[in-house]
Design the sequence.
């Protein structure tokens, strides 16, 4: 991703502030499920936004990541030109016990 | 509900056949969440379709109940003029352990 492509620092919602419906809606999407699963397999802060293998354009990917941030599932930070991600696994598990396990176990 | 208002027997999907995304999407809706919670508080086959306290019309209610049947969450049968419902709690729990508990515990 180009330097300066992120104009503002990302806004986050802590899982403790997330309604159940928001969490369910965030996970009820195939692209977002893929993002969550890919993040679960990677070490924190190692996956940049451009590194995900999902069949959507950059704007849609930004939207999906914003939904995941808003549901307390993903934390992002900028490291120079890269925006890197981590799954908020422990915090989300504390708020919604078992939900991520179910999602990561998959079908 | 009037006699004969249901033309065909309802179609059901067993929870074992339900993809995770379908289950999450079915639950990620405030009306359907209310239906599931009301059913969880009632004995099986005691709630008719007209008995739910949800702010939607009859066609929308039918749609929501069809989504819940398709996600393996609700079973319906006709008893004379009434279509009655039950939550498929045990079967759904076996397929998606912990998900209904999370939903029923609420926010």
Sequence:
């Amino acid at each position: 991703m180009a330097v300066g492509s992120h104009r503002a620092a990302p806004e986050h919602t802590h899982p403790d502030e997330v309604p159940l419906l928001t969490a369910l809606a965030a996970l009820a999407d195939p692209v977002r499920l893929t993002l969550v699963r890919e993040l679960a397999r990677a070490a924190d802060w190692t996956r940049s936004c451009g590194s995900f293998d999902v069949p959507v354009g950059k704007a849609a990917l930004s939207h999906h990541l914003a939904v995941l941030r808003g549901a307390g599932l993903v934390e992002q930070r900028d490291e120079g030109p890269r925006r890197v991600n981590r799954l908020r696994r422990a915090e989300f598990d504390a708020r919604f016990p078992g939900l991520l396990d179910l999602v990561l176990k998959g079908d």
Summary: The CA atoms of residues 37 and 81 of chain B lie 24 Å apart. The longest helix of chain B spans residues 58-70. Chain B has five helices and three strands. The mean pLDDT of chain B is 92.
